[in-house]
């Protein structure tokens, strides 16, 4: 049985974590970076990207753009309880051209900062790939006026969205998503490593279901460290603009990172 958390407790925990997890600098990658300001009409957002390792991380090779969206065109792509904030209906796309030559290793960390939204711990960073559903990739929120951070093993479309779901629902979904990613890429992993990662995730799931949130976070951290340690040797960890490689390590680490964020928000 999953732990059920009341809405009042969710809001209190989210408010507390909003103050405590203001984009902790220790979580940032140290490598090539890119920053720009995107404006559509009166709306504006500052984008920054940080890579662990990258070649060709230049403006032409990144393919960054922004456009307005509306709720109707997002029908079927947002989870129940997630909506487009009226103050910033701005979609940021990062679509590197195939001929551009961008290659990166590990995770790319993305941060969006805007003065068009007041700070709220419920305004989170979501990503969609290939026109599919948007999923929460948040790993940090902060003030000034509002900023969000997340990481990814690849690129596509990004939105700041308002999330009013119970944290218990969010955590459950992120555990299931990480399990699905691990299943999907099991063939790219040595059996021993795949078993270790599955065991870590199962232990995190069990601890969470028993209300042992701190233990669940420890298991997710161990999962991430195991993936990072095997990256580039036992686990593919490269993304490139030709889209002929799958950055398995980056995707697993990014999914674990956002799960850790939500577990911490739930009281870990």
Poorly predicted runs of 5 or more residues = 1-29
Task: Please tally the helical runs, counting DSSP H or I stretches of 4 or more residues.
Answer: 6
Global geometry: globular
Number of discrete domains: 2
Name the helicity range: 25-40%
- Quaternary organisation: single chain
Q: Report the sheet with the most strands, covering strand number, pairing sense and barrel closure.
A: 6 strands, antiparallel
Radius of gyration, CA atoms, in whole angstroms: 18 Å
Which structural class do the helices and strands define? alpha+beta
User: What's the total count of β strands?
Assistant: 12
Round the mean pLDDT to the nearest integer and report it: 90
Name the helix and strand elements from N-terminus to C-terminus, one letter apiece: HEEHEEEEEEEEEHHHEH
Span between termini:
19 Å
Strand content: 25-35%
How would you explain this protein's 3D organization?
Helix 3 (167-184) packs antiparallel against helix 4, helix 4 (191-209) packs antiparallel against helix 5 (213-230) and helix 5 runs antiparallel to helix 6 (248-265). The protein is globular. The chain is of the alpha+beta class and 268 residues long. The strands form two sheets. Strands 1, 2, 6, 9, 10 and 12 form a six-stranded antiparallel β-sheet that branches. Strand 1 and strand 2 (43-55) form a beta hairpin. The chain has six helices and twelve strands. Mean pLDDT is 90; it is low at 1-29. The protein folds into two domains: 7-163, no CATH class; 167-265.
